[in-house]
Amino acid sequence: EIMQVAEKRVVNKVVFILLFTAVIFLFLSFQNIEAATGKIGLVNLAEVISGHPYTQNINQLSLNLREELQKRQEELNKQGKGLDETGLRKLEDKFNKEW
């Protein structure tokens, strides 16, 4: 019985030491990750993309296309008032050929 108590104490000490070591290991690994993050820094993808010279060009082309489509739709609506379905189709075909 004394041996069982002694074995339990030894097992408890071993478990405690292993858990304590694991906690220290985890703590140190998180410290290393934070230090590396501080040195390297996180990349903000939006800043990288917005800083690229072609991004401005793409944004401008997109804006121009939206404006052109809006003008085209307004012109189609203006010319298409009062037309029947066949007339509207012909007008749309004409606009599509011009496009």
Automatic annotation (TrEMBL):
- InterPro entries xrefs: Skp_dom_sf (IPR024930)
Alphabetically sorted, this entry's keywords are: Coiled coil, Membrane, Transmembrane, Transmembrane helix
Q: Which residues form a coiled coil?
A: 58-86
Q: Where are the transmembrane segments?
A: 12-30
* The protein's name: Uncharacterized protein
